[in-house]
Design brief:
Elements lengths: L3 H11 L4 E8 L4 E6 L4 H14 L15 E4 L3 E8 L2 E8 L4 H19 L3 H17 L1
Antiparallel strand pairs: 1-2, 1-5, 3-4, 4-5
Helix pairs in contact: 1-3
């Protein structure tokens, strides 16, 4: 697997030019990694809840479509998130950072994470299948 120091270093490099923090969390809200100045566990729960709320399901009007990004603009910050291998990656920036630039930063980080995780793609797919099966049983 990825060494935690390698993941931490990658996230630290991504924090620049107005990006305040980066979170990687499971859809359940469990924190995998946090870098930056915002280490609020409640924020991770909110992120995962929002992602799950907007993610298309079989019952939703967007059935079969994939949610690629969730972008939030509020009074004091901009937040953008995407998912990779059943994890949610979230970047939070100050208000001055343009949303398009924040999205480009997230795309770059996601691309680098994909390269790091590619050797483990089969493992993640099996885990995703197991998670979906468990969710259907509940």
């Amino acid at each position: 697997m990825i060494k935690s120091s390698a993941l931490s270093n990658l996230l630290k490099k991504a924090i620049q030019n107005g990006i305040e923090s980066i979170f990687i969390t499971k859809k359940s809200g469990d924190i995998l990694c946090v870098e930056g100045n915002d280490n609020n566990p409640t924020f991770n729960d909110v992120i995962s809840s929002m992602w799950i709320e907007y993610e298309p399901t079989e019952e939703s009007p967007f059935k079969g479509e994939k949610l690629n990004y969730l972008i939030i603009e509020n009074d004091d910050s901009n937040i953008i998130m995407t998912n990779i291998y059943n994890y949610i990656i979230c970047m939070k920036s100050n208000k001055e950072m343009k949303l398009g630039l924040l999205k480009k930063h997230l795309e770059s980080l996601t691309k680098n994470l994909n390269k790091m995780l590619e050797p483990f793609k089969d493992v993640f797919e099996k885990l995703n299948e197991k998670i979906k099966k468990e969710d259907n049983e509940e």
